[in-house]
């Protein structure tokens, strides 16, 4: 990039979404500047990846770096009911016999650093430790950003497109009051890290384990990372976890008591981090793009972490937005319609994953569903691995609706007979 030459695209935030969108645009030869307020590496939650991240990582030229990393390989997921019974490993390769069915458990401080360095290698002008103060507008059109560096010096950077990838504290979602909480998935989480905790051996070492809490008040994630570290967190309704309870440490200890399967796994382990908590979970923006601007990753929305979809949705939204931006720059069209033309299909795909999350919390019996509709097992697996953007998956959703309607009718009939 020629010194002082105006970038065509400015990206706010250097996490997976920001690094993805900036890298893919730079690959097409456009001038991109990325502004990240932190200096990487920095801590971030969200360590588990699902198989469909493979295809975006391939476009980013990240696969070889991932294969050469110390990240634990993930081949499967397992579920533990409130009785403590462990399911057989759910191997992704059984549904899709391809290299993409092996993914990774990542330490986000390391993964995000790899991603932002990869962006720089592809020609993105990366600024770390530089904070975006505001998005600049000419009428309704975004025209750039105002930034401040570590020395306190401020300047304006003009661009044809502004991408907000600033995470859950999204500048534009707050500026325009676009945040729409999901009342059905009003959850929170409390978590920490242990060294020396139990993990399976061989192929099952990297399995994500989802463990139900007794009484179905919540669930624990159990994610093995490299260096003998395991991420262990509990998710539950906001009110249950955070209202009329003690501090986060006390609540976490109480939930461990309600999940003996987790407590047993960490019995001989050492807690090596403080207790973390977050109370602002599932939401989306009421508008994802405007003239000259677009939201990606958590800046657009976040879905409950039950099926580990966070990094996938960051990468996927970054990829789709990048393609729309490049097409718009080529045509000279950076309108709301052009920059957001990917959003309707993306939201349909996210909605399919959201449906599976909601069904889990409502106690839907997936085992019984598959026994009744064995031909849907592959499509249900596609949903779980993140292959969300196929219309034939809606047949599964329709069948779920039919089963729920039948169950409700049977319940009403039974109640009527008792009367």
What do you see in this structure?
Its EC number is 1.-.-.-. By secondary structure, this protein is an alpha+beta fold. The chain has 3 domains: 9-71 and 106-181 and 283-341, FAD/NAD(P)-binding domain; 187-278, D-Amino Acid Oxidase, Chain A, domain 2, CATH 3.30.9.100; 363-418, no CATH class. It has helices at 16-27, 53-59, 63-67, 108-121, 171-175, 238-242, 248-257, 260-265, 310-331, 336-339, 343-361, 366-372, 377-385, 394-418, and strands at residues 9-12, 32-36, 72-74, 76-80, 90-91, 103-105, 125-128, 131-138, 141-148, 154-158, 161-164, 179-181, 187-195, 208-212, 218-224, 229-237, 270-271, 276-278, 283-285, 289-290, 293-295, 301-302. The strands form 5 sheets. Strands 4, 5, 13, 14, 15, 16, 17 and 18 form an 8-stranded mixed sheet that branches. It has a 6-stranded mixed sheet with strand order 7-2-1-11-21-20. The longest helix has 25 residues, at 394-418. It is globular. The model has no long low-confidence stretch (mean pLDDT 94).
């Amino acid at each position: 990039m020629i010194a002082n030459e105006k970038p065509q695209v400015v990206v706010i935030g250097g996490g997976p979404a920001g690094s993805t969108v900036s890298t893919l645009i730079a690959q097409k030869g456009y001038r991109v500047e990325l502004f990240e307020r932190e200096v990487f590496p920095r801590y971030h939650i969200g360590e588990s990846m699902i198989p469909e991240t493979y295809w975006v990582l391939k476009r980013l030229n990240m696969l070889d770096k991932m294969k050469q990393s110390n990240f634990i390989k993930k081949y499967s997921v397992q579920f533990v009911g409130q009785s403590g019974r462990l399911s057989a490993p759910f191997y992704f390769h059984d549904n899709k016999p391809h290299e993409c069915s092996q993914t990774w458990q990542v330490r986000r401080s390391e993964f995000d650093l790899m991603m932002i360095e990869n962006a720089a290698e592809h020609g993105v002008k990366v600024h770390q430790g530089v904070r975006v103060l505001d998005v600049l507008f000419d009428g309704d059109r975004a025209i750039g950003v105002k930034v401040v560096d570590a020395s306190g010096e401020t300047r304006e950077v003009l661009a044809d497109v502004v991408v907000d990838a600033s995470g859950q504290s999204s500048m534009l979602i707050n500026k325009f009051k676009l945040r729409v909480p999901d009342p059905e998935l009003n959850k929170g989480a409390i978590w920490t890290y242990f060294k020396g905790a139990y993990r399976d051996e061989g192929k099952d070492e990297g399995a994500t384990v989802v463990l139900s809490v007794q009484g179905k008040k919540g669930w624990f994630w159990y994610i093995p990372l490299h260096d003998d570290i395991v991420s262990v967190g509990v998710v539950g309704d906001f009110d249950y976890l955070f209202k009329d309870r003690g501090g986060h440490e006390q609540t976490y200890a109480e939930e461990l008591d309600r999940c003996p399967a987790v407590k047993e796994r960490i019995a001989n382990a050492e807690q090596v981090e403080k207790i973390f908590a977050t109370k602002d979970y599932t939401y989306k923006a009421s508008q994802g793009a405007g003239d000259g601007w677009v939201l990606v990753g958590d800046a657009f929305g976040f879905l409950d972490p039950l099926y580990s979809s966070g990094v996938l949705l960051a990468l996927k939204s970054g990829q789709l937005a990048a393609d729309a931006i490049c097409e718009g720059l080529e045509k000279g069209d950076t309108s709301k319609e052009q920059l957001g033309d990917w959003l309707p299909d993306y939201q349909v795909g996210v909605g399919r994953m959201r449906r599976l999350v909601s069904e889990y919390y409502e106690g839907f019996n997936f085992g019984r569903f598959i026994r009744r509709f064995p031909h849907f097992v592959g499509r249900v697996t596609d949903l779980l691995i993140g292959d969300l953007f196929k219309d034939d998956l809606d047949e599964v959703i329709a069948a779920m609706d039919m089963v729920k309607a039948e169950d409700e009718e049977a319940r009403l009939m039974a109640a009527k007979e008792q009367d």
